[in-house]
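Thread: quick sanity check before group meeting

JM: Hey all, I'm pulling together slides for Thursday and realized we never actually wrote out the predicted structure for the chain we discussed last week. Dropping the sequence here so it's in one place. If anyone has concerns about the input, flag it before I start.
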Amino acid sequence: MPILRTAIAILFLTLSFSDNAAAQAEPELGIDKTTSGIVRQIKAKKRSQDYVRKRGWVQGENTKKDGGLFFVAIGVGTNTMTPTDPGWVGGRTFAFDEALLRAKAKLAEYIGTEISTSLKRDYERNMGKAPGKNKADPTNSAPSIPDDSIGKMKLLLKAKLDQALAKEGIKPDSPEAPKAVGRLLREKSMEKAVESVAKARVSGVQVAKIFESKGEGKKGQIAVIAMQSDKLKRMADAIASGNYSSIPPGKAKKPLWDQVPTDPEILSTSF
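JM (edit): ok, ran it. Output follows.
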């Protein structure tokens, strides 16, 4: 039964979102069935960078129209086999795996930067607003416990920063706190803590697009554009835990078979 539920969940998530959504409003879960992934004359890495730019994205943190964040990263892998080598197909698979791992590492790096930046912003916003200091101010209450695991881990990071500030005699709501927090976040112990939270966030990663270039008698190159967002993470968490109540709402549109690219050039660069 757990396997059946997981299969149903994956099918539901695959069918739930159309590829016709606006790029910025719904960047994830769309399927590009018009842009060929085969690259001629230039390298796959350069083509992937151009593709990201034309979509209005940047490598790193991006913001959707609804205010939600999504992260985009490019990873590159090399196929050491030439097209005439019997092991060329296996080399392509290895190159794809290599590229995806590198893209995931970059996603973790970008997410870590966002976490550190958001923590610093929290201290800047909370200057002079210690919880309970002004009970008449509804924005001055104690922070609520987030539902998501990343939010809870960020609270733990903030608690660790508060402890470090206390050791230096600095109050979390004081004007000195933001600058001190910036320094503390550069220390090895905090860097590792932020890194662990960022790595935990890198789940439910979507391969948004793949480009492949190969020269005559030369090594091939595969570039993977990977994407991560809160929506994708919630989907991954729902499938992993079997708790499908957290799946974002969606309505089935195109059947699964109709989502498979029919253009041979696009299909050949789909993993």
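AS: nice. The radius of gyration is 22 Å. Residues 4-23, 132-145 have pLDDT under 50 and may be disordered.
JM: adding both to the slides.
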